[in-house]
Structures are given as structure tokens and as C-alpha cells.
Design a protein that fits this description.
The chain is built from six helices and no strands. It is an all-alpha fold and about 140 residues long. The chain has one domain. Helix 2 packs antiparallel against helix 6 (about 125-140) and helix 4 packs parallel to helix 6. It is globular and about 40 Å long. The relative contact order is 0.13.
Length: about 140
């Protein structure tokens, strides 16, 4: 039986041997649309902070037009060439964003910048930490 969030009850999950919530086909599509909208909103805000030149078309004017995360994919070559001009905390934030798109490229970027393999998110201000948490909660993968 589904609860009000469209999730199977804990007892049903245990009985089926599942340890994570499962969604039915009926509730999955609306849920995914909500999650993707939340992700896009947080991604767009993050892109605005880091700089539109590193994402999508590279133009600020195209940020508002983006209708999906695919419109704002990281521009890897531009990031590799321009990351040296960013402050350390911005490099870390950009690396965290990149890890959602391509974790291997994020590791490469951290090494290029001389950052630790471990992201010390405490160095980021509350706005950036909140955006990252929103992205993590609503990421459906790339």
C-alpha cells in the first residue's frame, strides 16, 4: 500500500527485501518532474554564482531560457582553462558542481587546482552549502 507520498510502507519494503523507498509508475513521473524542477532551480542559481561562461552556451542571457539541466551542462574545456582565475572557495564550489555531472572530471579539476581530494564544504558560505544540499537531494543523475 502507498502512503500519501507515493511510497510503500516500511513493512512492505521490509517484506519485499528493499531498504530504500520504491515508487510506483503512477507516482514516479510527477515526482521526477518536481525533483528535476528543484534541481534545475538550484543548478541555475549555482551557475549564476560561479559564472555562466562555464556552463551551457556560456552566455548569461541563456540562463533564464534553460528548461533542463541539459541546457546548462558544464563546459569542461572552458572550466579547465579558466579555473585558475577563481578564488580557492570558488574552485571548490565549481568542483563540487562538476562532481554531480562527471566525478572523474571533478577529481581532475581538484588536482589541477591543488585542492584536496576531500571537499571541505565548511569553507563554503551558507548559500553555497545550501545550494549543494538542494542539488544532492534532488539529483537524478546526468
Amino acid at each position: 500500500m502507498l502512503n500519501h507520498d507515493g511510497l510503500h510502507s516500511t513493512a512492505e519494503r521490509r517484506g519485499a527485501g528493499r531498504s530504500v523507498p520504491s515508487y510506483t509508475g503512477e507516482t514516479n513521473e510527477p515526482h521526477i518532474r518536481v525533483v528535476e524542477a528543484r534541481f534545475l532551480r538550484a543548478w541555475r542559481q549555482s551557475v549564476t554564482i560561479v559564472g555562466a561562461r562555464y556552463f551551457g552556451s556560456g552566455r548569461i542571457a541563456d540562463l533564464a531560457k534553460a528548461s533542463s539541466k541539459w541546457d546548462l551542462v558544464p563546459r569542461l574545456a572552458t572550466i579547465r582553462h579558466g579555473v585558475g582565475t577563481l578564488e580557492r572557495t570558488e574552485q571548490m564550489f565549481l568542483s563540487a558542481l562538476l562532481s554531480l555531472y562527471n566525478p572523474h572530471e571533478a577529481v581532475r579539476l581538484r588536482k589541477q587546482c591543488g585542492l584536496s581530494d576531500f571537499l571541505d564544504l565548511n569553507l563554503l558560505d551558507p548559500v553555497r552549502r545550501e545550494l549543494l544540499s538542494e542539488l544532492l537531494l534532488n539529483s537524478t543523475g546526468w
